[in-house]
Design goal:
Layout (H helix, E strand, L loop, with lengths): L1 H33 L4 H6 L19 E7 L5 E7 L9 E5 L10 H9 L3 E5 L18 H15 L5 E6 L1 H12 L3 E7 L5 H13 L4 H15 L8 H5 L6 E6 L7 H10 L5 E6 L7 H19 L6
Parallel strand pairs: 3-4, 3-5, 5-6, 6-7, 7-8
Antiparallel strand pairs: 1-2, 2-4
């Protein structure tokens, strides 16, 4: 009698666990992928800023303004414009941060650009920093936000010569934006993935120790349903085929989060001859700027000056 009762308890417990597991997989885990302000993610993960030290709270010595503009789908997005030290800026560089970071990551980079004659606009991507929104769409909606930002800057700031500098997720957004809006005249793309589904599968392998593409693809598709975007469109490598602007593709060869093979794949699809691949030896995902050091920034500055304009 006791054995039958124990078997019954085990049976129903197993059924409950299976149902609970399915509900977690179907409803909860996909939200962890794209819901930026999810409290569980906030507790277990902290984004590490890379490159310049942004811990200083000192005010910039350069002229700055923070502003909001409305996205194509009526979200209020936050950005900071830092003006060039020159009377006429060489260009305006849009700065795009990585996932779960924000525009403050670029405080010192904005100063670097200003003292070398460039305006910069550091953007809080949707659902990040002071910008509204709940979900990241990995470039699907964000590339349209960049278009709207350029519209705003053209109309309200009378700016007309734009470049883009993106890191990680920001780099992936930058590639999609460059293929989407030809007003972006040059780009610096660091540590970007080439396809959303592939990188989610890789992240499972990195953090869980195994990966199974049908399972990760299921989660990606559920993420798209919840966040209301097409995950198949989150494919920087497809937008690379439309990039004819000068571009630097940059990646560390010890990056475990986003393998350098994705940077090489993106680079190979860009038809423009004015492209350069920079491999940062011994750099991982988080320290490209630090390892690349002065030599890297000298090359970037050279690239920026090659594509400058005094029309602003």
């Amino acid at each position: 009698m006791r054995n039958k009762k124990s078997i019954k308890i085990i049976k129903w417990s197993s059924i409950v666990l299976i149902i609970l597991g399915f509900l977690i997989i179907h409803f909860f885990i996909p939200r962890l992928i794209s819901e930026i302000r999810n409290p569980v993610v906030t507790l277990i993960k902290r984004n590490k800023n890379v490159g310049f030290d942004v811990s200083s709270t000192n005010a910039s010595k350069f002229n700055q303004k923070e502003f909001y503009f409305n996205s194509f789908d009526s979200l209020k997005l936050s950005a900071r414009l830092t003006y060039s030290s020159l009377d006429s800026a060489k260009a305006t560089v849009i700065l795009l941060h990585g996932i779960r970071s924000n525009k403050d990551h670029f405080k010192n980079l904005s100063n670097f650009l200003a003292e070398n004659g460039f305006n910069s606009v550091a953007l809080d991507s949707r659902a990040h920093g002071k910008s509204e929104g709940s979900f990241c769409s990995f470039g699907v909606n964000e590339k349209k936000d960049i278009k709207t930002l350029i519209d705003y800057l053209s109309t309200h700031e009378n700016l007309s010569h734009f470049g883009i500098w993106g890191q990680s997720l920001g780099g992936a957004i930058g590639l999609q934006a460059m293929g989407y809006d030809k007003r972006i005249e040059f780009g610096i793309i660091e540590s970007a993935f080439s396809d959303f589904k592939s990188i989610v599968n890789d992240y499972f392998d990195l953090h869980v120790g195994f990966s199974y593409a049908p399972f990760s693809n299921y989660l990606v598709n559920r993420t798209g349903k919840i966040a209301e975007f097409d995950p198949n469109d989150a494919s920087p490598i497809e937008y690379c085929k439309n990039i004819n602007q000068p571009i630097l593709i940059v990646h560390g060869n010890e990056d475990e989060r986003i393998n350098i093979k994705y940077a090489r794949a993106n680079f190979s699809k860009i038809p423009n001859l004015k492209k350069e691949f920079i491999e940062i030896d011994s750099a991982n995902h988080s320290n490209v700027w630090k390892v690349g050091s002065d030599a890297y920034f000298e090359r970037v500055l050279e690239f920026l000056n090659e594509n400058k304009s005094l029309s602003n």
